[in-house]
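<discrete_fold_record>
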Amino acid sequence: MPVRPIITVDGPSGGGKSTAASGVARALGWFHLDTGAMYRAVAWKSLRAGLTPSAARRLGALARQARLTLRLDARRRLRVMLDGRDVTSVIRTAAVSARASEIAVIPAVRRALVAAQRRIGRRGRVVAEGRDTGTVVFPAAAWKFYVTASVPVRARRRWRDLRRAGATLTYAQVLHALRARDRRDTRRADSPLRRAAGAIVVDTSRRTPRQTIQTLLRCLKHHPIALPWRGPGVKVR
């Protein structure tokens, strides 16, 4: 199988993969494919439709029929469009996050969204982030990363994000939810969260977002397979 110009960035919630992936994509001038946002969008739609996670068949149909589009705005920020509506902001709540984790274990939902993700990947020059982009969605990708951090650090980051979004959850509640999500993600039968073979592990516990992005870019620069650099210019120390 020919090598496609795709970079995958996987890892658990709060590890810093979203910031890392978007930063690398911006530096290279590539497209940022946030697969988690796609699950969040379907989760948001399922909540509005009143579907519970036990309605696997209906949720699979909902995922297949959803008109889901990812695009970059003028400032190269990712926008998530669902059935003609911009849902970028509304899918970032604690309730949507929890539901996304619940429906992500449903094979029919995963099949629908993986197919959509692979269609986007055909264009190439994509930085894909999620939990199975390097293992399932794009197993032939030449450049793979696994971005993570300690559980307390990840919980603290998630708690701060939720507070900025107006949520009133305590740190203890967020920590409990994060551990539960880790269990679901790593133990699910379909496409569990795990490090892809050959993926470079980057621990962000003691790194700033900028340092993490620079680490990934430095790894790409010295990767055995030359990267087709065609961005606005990248300075790697």
The chain has one domain: 6-221. The chain is about 45% helix and 15% strand.
